[in-house]
Amino acid sequence: MHYKLLLLFISILYGLAASATPQTQSGQRSSADILREAEDYIIVEPSHSYQLLRQINSIDNLTPAQQIRWHLIKVRSAIATNNLSDIEAELAALIKLQQHTDFKDRLPSILSAMGIALRRLGYLAEAKSLYTCALALDVTEKKRMALLINLAVLSRHMNNYQLARRSYKSAKSIALRLHHERALANVNNNLGTLALDEGKVDMAEVYFREALVGYQSSDKRSGNITAGTNLLLVFAIQGHTLNFQRLISPISTLIDAYPDATKKALLLWLISANDANLGVTLPQNTKDNLISAFEQLESVKLQQLIQRHLAPKVQVVVTPGEPPARFTKTTPAWLQGRSFCIAKES
User: Is 21 exposed, middle or buried (0-12, 13-18, 19+ CB in 10 A)?
Assistant: First the structure.
């Protein structure tokens, strides 16, 4: 009996070794394998997805379906890491593939990613149009939940708090029904930002605490950073230096290892505000660095929160960007060439 088991084990090992031989001999992995791994990492470590795509030497050698996946992964990882320098080129390349069947099959996911990218780039009306289009499609509950969350985030940036709350309420209902911890964490984090906008700091703390617990259980690094920095912001506003000191070490470690300059800029503001709460007099060079970091913050909304709550603490005068300019930004030429979602929004 033991002899038969030993033979079976040896045969399994031999089979595994034989199947691995072509890849080992060539020293290269297939494009399909790279794309699959990049998709697997997009939630937990998008920066790794970004790097994996660089292993594909030429996307011209990919099938149209693989090219669509490549561009979509590039867009999603760029969004997650705030690496937006060439994202418009990726979006334009995606639209050039719009007639392929795989594009149409992935349309809800593509619209979701495009909507986020357009919001980050300042094309708010266009982003809303794509979300409205996507929500009218026959999509799964999970995808509808994600689209509602994205629409709510956009609505906050457009100062439409009524639509933001309504969208979050619908998304939270689906997340509870699906027992989707990561989505619940996302909703709670964003409800916290709404509370902060309204000056309800203690309510924001409750939401951010729930969000951080949810992200930790779902092992989403970027979510931990977002909810963690938001909670640190609340502690800095409240002057709760002990709570701040307990949380700053794990969050700063995550940020240091994360390729996102906007998060590092926010971290500088948080640490400086906490130092001020402790009675530390900030030197002029730190104040100069804070002014530079202010320009790197992720959004005008965040700049407004920092100006209102932290700038007085560190005795620095800063001016947020002008939100109205973002509402009237001209539709980019590459987006005008689309054949999908072209019906005029009512």
Answer: exposed
Which long-range CB contacts under 8 A does 119-122 form with residues at least 24 apart?
Answer: 119/150, 119/153, 119/154, 119/157, 120/79, 120/82, 120/84, 120/87, 121/84, 121/87, 121/88, 122/325, 122/326, 122/329
* Per-residue pLDDT reduced to its tens digit, 298-316: 888 999 999 999 999 999 9
Answer positive or negative: Cα dihedral of 184, 190, 192, 198.
negative
* Residue pLDDT, tens place only, 234-254: 999 999 999 999 999 999 999
Query: What is d(CA 190, CA 29) in angstroms, rounded to the nearest whole number?
Result: 40
- CA separation for the pair 168, 175 (Å, rounded): 10
Buried b (16+ CB within 10 A) or exposed e, 118-130: bbbbbbbebbbbb
The alpha carbon of 58 is separated from its chain's Cα centroid by a whole number of angstroms, namely: 27
* H helix or E strand, kind and range, residue 319: none
Relative orientation angle of helices 261-277 and 300-309, to the nearest 10 degrees: 10
The residue count for the chain: 346
| CA-based torsion, 19, 21, 23, 26: positive or negative | negative
Q: Within its chain, how far is the Cα of 63 from the centroid?
A: 28
Instruction: Write out the two tokens for 175.
Output: 């997340």
Instruction: Give the three-class secondary structure for 24.
Output: helix
**Token couple for 157:** 């940036």
pLDDT digits (tens, 9 = 90+) for 7-53: 343 343 334 333 333 333 334 689 999 999 999 998 888 889 989 99
Q: Enumerate the H helices of the chain as residue ranges.
A: 2-26, 31-41, 46-53, 64-80, 87-95, 101-105, 107-121, 124-135, 141-157, 161-178, 181-197, 201-218, 221-238, 241-256, 261-277, 284-296, 300-309, 311-314, 324-327, 333-336
- Contacts of 7 by beta carbon, 8 Å cutoff, 6+ apart: none
- 64, 93 Cβ separation under 8 angstroms: no
